[in-house]
């Protein structure tokens, strides 16, 4: 039976306008928002929830998580039981939902099994846009073998984050393998990274021909490519070849910004992960070599964020935290809020994120026809982003697809 609920006396946050309007009523019928306005009537039999002036806002969207990465030592994941890793992922997904994230994108690790378990209600968590295994060249960012190991087990059930592929034919096949599982996007490694053992952060990875082949395969099935990249050289190669979103981007420059604007591409900064790895990465398994590489990108991220924001680049919220550091997922709001207006930070985790995911009008806003993904918080996030970073005290209600998942309202 479809339930109808009227949320009364809401201060409604509109991320597009960057405003909070008091005295709104929001009618939810089943999983969707049915009506929004000051005079919406409660139909017969509807349940009425009095929000008493609290802020009602869209559910949050994190565009860069790794639900399988219960440790920062990513190399060990491939040798662990997929059942064990799946249970760990289920626990983390529930925690993400309880932080207010109703949708996440996992560009490396989560697969159709995780997606289906959430979609079928077997586990509580944000709905998952997954990329399956990220594509890496030999010696690239998802090739997590130590230098002395020549053998790699590519079995689908190994719960690691990536697959190694080389050459145009090899990358085409690897992309098709991920896409045939229903992946929402394909993730590729365009440069070296922090958590990988044998590559340099300033390297470029995959040839232009390989990148274009992967983009062609994704576009053939109306999907897109997300590219891990740090330096302007790596970013620019990806954007010119048709990569839709750049993950991290800490070392971009003005030439990169021009390409973002030319291609209407997206940047997904993940600043919190470098802050937390510097503080507690070693405690959660990050190898010494990765800690050294972390210092190369730590301070550059805020400068890149400011440069991209001033130019009007599409910015999306991302955290990219590993292991026990994932509990800091909401701190990205505070970090970005130090240099950007609160309204723009909130847009990155709502409407702009929805645009990247191809879900405009469906998630990221509270409007008729949208999924009823909504949060009730004490305080105004436009005045103080700290409202979003203390869910135990400030997050009072989490509604996902019209269903209440967290209820801390005092009645």
UniProtKB/TrEMBL annotation:
Pfam families in the record: Amidohydro_1
Highest taxon above the source species: Bacteria
Stretches assigned to the Amidohydrolase-related domain: 55-401
Gene Ontology molecular-function annotations: hydrolase activity, acting on carbon-nitrogen (but not peptide) bonds
Protein name: Imidazolonepropionase
Organism: Glycomyces harbinensis
Organism lineage string: Bacteria, Bacillati, Actinomycetota, Actinomycetes, Glycomycetales
